Amino acid sequence: MTTIAYDGRYIACDGRAASASGRVVSDKFKKYIEIDDMFIFFSGTVADIEPLVEIINERGSDDICEASLIVVDKHGLVAVEQDETGKIHRLPLDDVDNFAIGSGADFALSAMDLGEDAKDAVSYAMTRDVYSGGKITVFDTETLTFVTSE
């Protein structure tokens, strides 16, 4: 799993990747991809990321993906999830102050509710969620650039 937090401007994500058996594989895993000036941040089962990205513009699929995405491009931000029936749901985030996905989402949201930015929220979530850790990457949604990676 993971922690990806959005604070109204910045998206921050951790770098931990774990195997299906719960072993840490990497703390420097890149939890985003760039496709045609679109940045896609993902959490969930790694094997389900690519299929969900492929059906992102479809209405649904017979294949159920256990993954969540935050998609950013010059037109704005949207959260993408698939329900148990295969239907794709999109939640616009342009007017949302705080949002998070992944196993550490509740911790990150609580930290942002208490005034922390996305980076510090992910840092806090990493102290509570065993599936979040490692390097934190921060993306500026206004300039569409990465501003830090530690």
Give a written overview of the molecule.
The chain has 150 residues and is of the alpha+beta class. The protein has a single domain, classed as Aminohydrolase, N-terminal nucleophile (Ntn) domain (Glutamine Phosphoribosylpyrophosphate, subunit 1, domain 1), CATH 3.60.20.10. Helix content is 19%, strand content 36%. It contains 3 helices and 12 strands; from the N terminus they run ββββββαββββααββ. It has helices at residues 46-54, 105-113, 118-128; strands at 4-6, 10-13, 17-18, 24-26, 32-35, 38-44, 67-73, 76-82, 88-92, 99-101, 137-140, 145-149. Strands 10-1-2-11-12 form a 5-stranded antiparallel beta sheet. A 5-stranded antiparallel beta sheet has the order 5-6-7-8-9. It has a two-stranded antiparallel ribbon with strand order 3-4. Helix 2 crosses helix 3. The protein is globular. It starts with a strand and ends with a strand. The model has no long low-confidence stretch (mean pLDDT 87).
Helix/strand layout:
Blueprint: E1 4-6, E2 10-13, E3 17-18, E4 24-26, E5 32-35, E6 38-44, H1 46-54, E7 67-73, E8 76-82, E9 88-92, E10 99-101, H2 105-113, H3 118-128, E11 137-140, E12 145-149
Antiparallel strand pairs: 1-2, 1-10, 2-11, 3-4, 5-6, 6-7, 7-8, 8-9, 11-12
Helix pairs in contact: 2-3
